[in-house]
Every structure is written in structure tokens, then in C-alpha cells.
């Protein structure tokens, strides 16, 4: 994710709302100047806080809600500093207006780090203005007044006024400078750090419309869009003219498409009176496809190419420290291992959808998108219209996991609505979803590690074989040059080679880390065992090396702290019965430090049971909402276990997966207890959507090694290897 | 074709093709959006509704097979004592992450508690294993079922 300029300074602006209320918003001066003619309506729309004279307080949720609980967490932050009574807070979804709101995408565990401090300040500023308004009315110094539960109180005289009563007066005051407001001491927090339930829970448990798929407009038509199963395939011939005559079908047409996985694909759109009629008509489609280059690619050939590439030196060097050749020659023990992991899909439960209305060369859209700003740009590019002519409403979404950082379905809906000249809801079916994903790329790692005479890691190398197009790695298919243990080994070299492929790839929860955690933390566990050392003690010793040169903001003492704590919590080191084992792993991603232990057992037939998982994380100073935080960690861990145990997308031209039976999820009967603890540290508060996922996969594989003596070096785990 | 339907105690009518799944009749014809589409193949359980009190996967139930059975959806389950207890437990324990599967989870949990008023861990595991939660909010779902089971009706 890119933000144009995160340092662009915003100013607070107060204004009056209809009926004597108070609005507080941020603004960018140039944007305001360019829109000097904007009326109060615009300020009203883009306010962060609206306090009605009735006392009702509306707080805007600025980040798309995908299940990460941000709609609750970030508004809690404003409400806390505002000293609002949470019971009379109503949370609204902000319009897409990043000039006012800043970053409005959900990805990279970035929402808390990019908005936490600013949201505190907005809440504190509003409170300061309400206090100032009360002090003015009572003719007392503001310093004698304080705020609590949506009221300003003057203790000495026993007077108090509600925020609703003060709203109109506060709206006439000058807003303070954002970085000058006084923030609460953590001991004064009323909401931050408290288990707070989701603001949409009522609507969810009673089935009220909330999600993209629930959008309904008068005279709306329903669309399906049929694409080639081979990636990038194009329509050559079809019976689309007959399809157009089927019951309920209003339009059926071919879209030519472009050669870019981010643009509009080639396919056939069918628009009908109901989604079921469109879907049924689709079953009668007969299409001859031009399958193109991608037809020849397949998973077995990828495996063979990786083996061949491993016979040669890496095509590119990613990082180099010391001299590995010399380093290995100085080692008394060398360990080599090859690791493999597959392409996997997102499988978010709400299939992709988008509703669009084309009217007089303007578009209005309702979309479940994690990156709606970028989606709007893509639509503008594809349709050759101005972004200003596209109004986007972001809905709650049935899972994101990175899939909805890509807006292909938004572009398709816009295209179809323009052609149909009607309000259209495009809805994919599950097969579309699995076969037209932006997959987590597969990969291959050939490791070599050397120990010196003291059992210390002395040399380390990796030849990473990944996937590319025109000599460049596919999206999310590259590896960070700073991957641990760089800086903790005197001699190290990472290199990479690419297999040519034409596959849409992208970000899946903890992108790159979800695979790198597996391979690197399993390899280090192998090294620990080869050195005859306890894996926890080995990792701690590595992190505490006196000659270490940590890179990229990595703080080894924070990792050592979570490792030690998870060791204590899990009873690390106690002997277990035969067929059982505990494994440990840690990983630093998205500014978060996580260490996890898995206790697994394997029966005589090779069946794996996961008895328990312990997780300890350090994401800085505050846990904003313990409920959402625990959800994110437990969810990440169970997702990682699903990936490790079940998930794989076999490639043969396109993706050979049509539904969940081929890309399974952990289910209720197999869910282990997951104990979560946070170690607060004196560091900035960072996000929790992703960093808990990477360690659980290697922790499981390392546990299975202890239980069986067999190493898992390929995902998903094949239970038959233990039989 | 016209189908008279009894939905959440109300008499309604839908004019649709005989093979239209109940899911799409509920969502697109009757505008009851609470029942969700996930897999279309009775794998994920997001579309679970009750027919005469029995849980069915509405995505594979053609409207022609509904007959005169009473349909209950998430929008109507709150009038049932067990349904209301579960909805309350879901809110208090903050079960939803994205929330998309939760209508199906609650509908399934109602039938679980009807069969086993005080379910064991294993009964919860077996009874709920055909309802996927992609966010994996399983710990809270289990806790909420146990919590609801402890409440007086």
C-alpha cells in the first residue's frame, strides 16, 4: 500500500451542524481552497465527529471493516479522548474522502499505527472545545472544568452541562492545533483497553443488511461475469446471442478485456432480472476460448523447474554479508534442507460483488473493498472517466484477508452497468472466487546452514525459487532482503531465481511472511536440533549474540521477551508422552513480535491432533480493544493451521479448485484451545490483523518433528508421511 | 410460478422459477438479506434456515420442495426463546469478526440446543462442524453456545 504523503499536515475545523449541533473535521488546506465553493454540506459529510443538540454523538469510521473490528476500535479511541458516553455514540461509515480522512484502506495491519494518535487528538480537541464553551458560559477558567460521560462539569459550583447543550456554542470556537491538544494519561482511559463489543453486532445477529451483497436498489438487475479458467484466456466465439434470449435475461455481451490482471478481463456478462436467472443462463453458455500462453503452465512443471534452477547459482543476489563460501569452509557441521509451499487462495466467505449505477456519465458504486480509493482509480482508468465522476460507498465486508485489496470485481461491475445502462449488482459464485483470485504465490527454498565448533550459527544461505513474469517477481512473490537471521550470522547469502508464470498473485494476510515464517523458522529449528540445543535456548542465544547487527527496525530484545514468555506459559521443556511434541517459532512482521508454541500429537495411523496453541505478542504500548485483539490473534492462528493442514491451489493453466472441499478450513470439531497473552512494551501501538499468523505454521511443523522424528518440509502437511 | 410461503410467521408469495433455491427467493424476491450466500453447494452453512424447525441449506433447496413448511430465518429467530438467548450471547461475548457466517451459525446453534440443551464440547464440535467461519471465531461461537445453554429460557 502506498500513501502519497503521510506527513501532509491536516488542520482541524469546527463548524455548526443543522439544528445547532457541532461538527469537527480535519482538512487539508489545498483541498479546501480548491473547493472553496463547497457548502456546509461537505463539511457535514466529512466530519469526524458530529454532536447533535439532542446529545447523540456520531463518530465516523474511516477504515473499511473486514472483520478486523476497526469500526469499533478506532471510534473507541475518539470516544475515549472525547470522554463520550459510549452508550450514546453512533458509529457511521465515513464517505470515501481521503483528502479529509487520510488513509482509507484496510491492509498491512496499518490502520491502528496510521490513525491511533491522530484519532486520540481529534477526540481530545473536541473535548477541549466543549470544555471551553462551558467555561465561557459559566465565566470560569477552563482549567477548573473537566469532562466525563458526555458532560462538562464545574466541581466548585456543582454546575454541569451535557455535550448536546454545549454543541452549538462549541461550534463557534476556533479549533485547536492538532498537535497541541492535551492527551489523557493511560490511567484515565475509559474505553481503550476495555473489552468492547462490535458496533454492528445487533444488526449482524438479527440479519439486517450490512454487506456488499445485501445492497438493493429499485429496478436493480443482477449480473454474472464468466471468465476463462485459464488465466488471461480470451473469448474467441460464443453462443451469447442465444443466451440473450433466455428467460429473464436482459443483456448478454462479450467483454474483450485487456492483458493486465488489474484491468478488465475478457469474459461474458449476463444481466438478468434475478441473479438465479443470470446464473442459470450461464450454464448454457458455450464458449471457445483463446487460452494463450498460460495454458502450458502447471504445478508439476513448476516443481521440475525449481529442481533445475537449484542446480545452478541463483539468478540474482538479494543480500550478502561476509563470505558464505569461506564461512561454510570454517564450519564443523553443515545442514541442508529444501522447503516447498503451494499457491493458496483467500476464500473469504462473502463472494466478490459490487453494485453500480451508471447515469449521465457518472457512476455510483457500493463495494466491499479494502482499498476503495485504488478501486475508484482503476474504474476511472478502465472506463476512461474522471475519478470525480465516481461516488463510492464502502460496505461492511464478509472477510477481506487481502483479497479485496484488489478491485477487479469493481471494474467489472462498472463496465457492465455502463453497458446495461441500469443499476446492476454483479455477484460472483464460489467457483469464480476460487478460480479468479490473486493467489498467495508458491515458492521453493534451498537452505544451507553451518555451525562452528561451539555450535553457533556461522554461515547461512538460501536459494529462493519464486515466480515471475518478464524477469520480475510476481506480486507478493519476492522475499525481503532483510529476512531473519540476517545480521545474526557472520556469513550469509540470499539469492533468488524465477520460474516464468502467468498467474494473478497478491497479498494474503501477512503477505510473504506467511510463507517465510514457515521456511525460516523450520530451518532454524533443524539447525538447533543439529547443534544438539533446545530450540528455544538456541533462538534466544541467536537473538542475544553480541556481534548482532539487527536490520530494518527489528528489536531482538522484544522478540527474546515474547519467546521467553511463551516458553513459561506453555510449560516448555517438560517431557511429553511418545507421539506428542511441542514446537516453538517466532516471527516479526507488520511491526509486531509474536512467539508461539504448538502442542501436537500424532496417532499410529498418522492422524494429527493439535492439543493447544500458546501465543505471546508485543504490539507496543496499548491493546485498544482486547476483544478484537484476541479475535485477531486466535483467527490468525487458526487460519495458519488451515493453511498448514489443508490448503493448496494446484495450477493447470488456471486454478484447479472450485469450492471449499478442495481448499478446506479448520472446523469447529478440530479447533484447539488458543491461549493469547500480550506483553505491552514502551513502543508505538501497532496493528494486529497479521503478525500472529506466521509463527504458528513452523511451530506446528516443529512440534510434529518432536512427536515423530519426521520433518515437514512441504505444505500442506501430508498426514501419510507419519503413518 | 407462484409459491405461497410462510416466512417468520407471515404469509408471503413469490413468483419464481420452480428450481430457484430458497436462498435467492429469500434474499432477492422477499428482500430478507440476513441469510447469506457462501458456497452454493451446501458446504459452508452460511445459508442455513429452518423448515418446520429443521435446519436446511437454503442454497440447495429448490423453492418447489418447500411446500407448506414454515420457513424461519435469522430475521425471525429472535421470537424463539433459544434463538433470542443465542442472539444475546452472541452480542455479549462479541462473537462476530466479519459477521458474514453468523446468521448460519446462529440458526445451526438453535437446532443444536433444541437437540442438546446442555451440549458437551463434542456435541458442539459435531453439531457445528458444517458451518464454516473463515475468520475462525470458533472459540467465541463455542463460548456463546455454552453461555446461552446456561441461561434460563
Automatic annotation (TrEMBL), chain A:
SMART domains: Ald_Xan_dh_C. It comes from the Bacteria. Residues 206-293 form the Aldehyde oxidase/xanthine dehydrogenase a/b hammerhead domain. Gene3D superfamilies: Aldehyde oxidase/xanthine dehydrogenase, a/b hammerhead (3.90.1170.50), Aldehyde oxidase/xanthine dehydrogenase, molybdopterin binding domain (3.30.365.10). InterPro entries: Ald_Oxase/Xan_DH_a/b (IPR000674), Ald_Oxase/Xan_DH_a/b_sf (IPR036856), AldOxase/xan_DH_MoCoBD1 (IPR008274), AldOxase/xan_DH_MoCoBD2 (IPR046867), AldOxase/xan_DH_Mopterin-bd_sf (IPR037165), N-heterocyclic_Hydroxylase (IPR052516), OxRdtase_Mopterin-bd_su_IorB (IPR012368), TAT_signal (IPR006311). This is Molybdopterin-dependent oxidoreductase. It comes from Shewanella electrica.
From TrEMBL, chain B:
Keywords: 2Fe-2S, Iron, Iron-sulfur, Metal-binding, Oxidoreductase, Ubiquinone. Residues 1-77 form the 2Fe-2S ferredoxin-type domain. The keyword Iron-sulfur applies. CDD domains: fer2 (cd00207). The keyword Oxidoreductase applies. Pfam families: Fer2, Fer2_2. It comes from the Bacteria. PANTHER family: BLR6218 PROTEIN (PTHR44379:SF2), OXIDOREDUCTASE WITH IRON-SULFUR SUBUNIT (PTHR44379). This is (2Fe-2S)-binding protein. It comes from Shewanella electrica.
